[in-house]
Structure formats: structure tokens, C-alpha cells
Amino acid sequence: MSSRADPSVDPSMLSRADPEGAVAAAAKRCSNWGRWGADDVRGTMNFLTPAKRVEAAALVRRGVSFSLSQSFDANGPQKGWRRRTNPVHTMLDTGTDAAAGVQGFPHGIGGADDVIAMPLQCSTQWDGLGHIFDHGYAWNGRRAADVVTSLGDGFTGIETVADVITGRGVLLDFGDLPDGFAITESHLVATAARQGVAIGRGDIVLVRTGQLARARRDGWGDYAGGPAPGLSFTTADWLYSTEIAAIATDTWGFEVRPNEFDDAFQPLHQVAIPHIGLFLGEMWDLDALAADCADDGVYEFWLTAAPLPITGAVGSPVNPIAVK
């Protein structure tokens, strides 16, 4: 464990004027490049082994399940930043069409069909390993321009992990944190201890800040892109050393916003995705699960959170299911 005077642990020791230096130092300390070979495309999902899934399956005791997804509809949080919009759902065939006899089917059969248009990261979703680059480099030291082209992510497309994101989930419930609250390593460790859970290799960690619950109560406001509680940049070393498979939050951007530097944008992403090879989930709905965990005192569960296998995508909508 580093000392409190170490900027890798203590946010107050960060040089707010030097995000580039902080990113470079953390990237050097926390790099998994080459760990699973030069051809690796799964990053930290390599920690989630078949043996880990067998262990996790034993966590199902009551058979109760919780969807951890927000609704995918026009009432979502997006406001158009970087062309991200809420889903647009359109009916192609309806019961009205069937009743009018205009569908052209024989012997009285009718049907309904629909289509949806949406950015892949407009609601509950995974960030894939092709989502963020550092100085032109993507996960495992590949050149970003070679990885993601107009045809999509030709190496680490989200389809490469479509069959592996299922295993032990652990919820860390922080209650209702104020916007701008930076969750540090000490907060993560203390919360895990208070809830009686250990976090380690291959786990999928869920962090509830309470921001989504507030947005539901008070309106979306700046939920998408504005101030938020979230992980401190200084948690990079914890994310690396615990060897977790993935981590997800109930916030838009995973890390604390505003970020902990004077001129920066999502610096923890810049270390976690391209260097650690870590999968980040955002905008997960953890409220019902948190209530159940508080009731029975059990904060670990079976979790399945497969992305849609959209070839070449750098992220994907997901409907995670926790089972206790």
C-alpha cells in the first residue's frame, strides 16, 4: 500500500496542472500490454476464467433476479453531446395495419415489427477496448488508426467478449454521494469491508453512487456529461492490482466529474481502457439490487452482462442480470 503522500493514492497530492504527466506515470505503472500475448483482444476479461464462473454459479441461492438496465426509450438522459441521442423507436407494422387488412398475409394472420435507431452508448452500456486511445495508441500497444477505421474496430470489437462477461458480481453501495465526490482506493476498500465482501481476480465490480436515483427523482439535468460522483484518478492502481475483469457505475462517465485536473477530460479512461485493458460499464441501474443487498446483507451474486455482438463496435448496450 502506498503512503498517503503518494499521488497515486491521495487525490490532494495530484498536480492539477499536469494531467498528461499523471496519465503517463499511471500508464507506466498499470500497463498490461503484452501480458496475454501480442495478439490479445480481451484484456482483463482474461481474468474471468471458467473456474471463476463455476465458483460464481454457487452464489445463486434464492433465484431472485434483477435487471440492471435503464429503459431504452426517448425519455433517456442524452442531450446531444457528440451526437449522442436517446433511442428512437419506430413501428414498421402495427395492430392497426393488421386490422385494416393491409399487410398482405393469408388466412388472417397479422403481425407487428419495429426498428430502433440509437448510439450504442446512449444508455446502459459497456465501453469496449477500442473506445479510448492514449496518444494514438489503443489496447495492447496497437496504433489507434490501425485498430478502429471507418469499418469499425477490426481487432477488439465488442463481439470479441460477447461470450465471456458472466461471473461473480460485487456491489459496492455508497448510498447517495454528492456530485464531484471522488471515490478513492480507501473508500473502495472500506466499503467492501463494511459490506463483508472481498474483491479480487475476475470479479465484476458495481459501484452505486446514488446519482441515477437522484436523476430519476429530480430530472435528468446534467446527468449526461455534467458533474457527478465517481472514481478518483488515483484508483488506477487499485483497478490494476485487484485484477478485476470489469467495473460499472450508475453514472454517465464512471470517473468523478469535474475531473481532478484543471484542464482534462476523462483521464482515468485514458489509463483504464488502453493500458489496463479494463472494461467499463456506465449508466447501470443498481437501485433495486442495492435495496435487496441491504435487506439480506449479501453483496455478491451471479452476474451476466453480455454485450450485443455487433461486429466492430467499440461499445454496446447491455441488459445486465444479477441473480442471488
The average pLDDT value, as a whole number, equals 96
Low-confidence stretches: none
> CATH homologous superfamily of the largest domain?
Putative cyclase
Number of helices: 9
Structural class: alpha/beta
Q: Please provide the ordered H/E string of secondary-structure elements.
A: HHEEHEEHEEEEHEHEHEHEHEEE
Largest sheet: 9 strands, mixed
Percent of sequence in beta strands:
15-25%
**Helix content range of the residues, please?**
10-25%
CATH architecture assignment of the largest domain: 3-Layer(bba) Sandwich
Number of strands: 15
Assign an overall shape.
globular
Gyration radius, rounded: 21 Å
CATH fold field value of the largest domain: Glucose Oxidase, domain 1
Oligomer: single chain
- Can you tell me the number of structural domains? 2
Identify the CATH class of the largest domain: Alpha Beta
How do the strands of the widest beta sheet line up side by side? 1-15-13-7-9-11-12-4-14
Distance between the first and last residues' Cα = 33 Å
Protein name: Cyclase family protein
GO molecular function, one term: hydrolase activity
Enzyme class: hydrolase
Organism: Actinoplanes sichuanensis
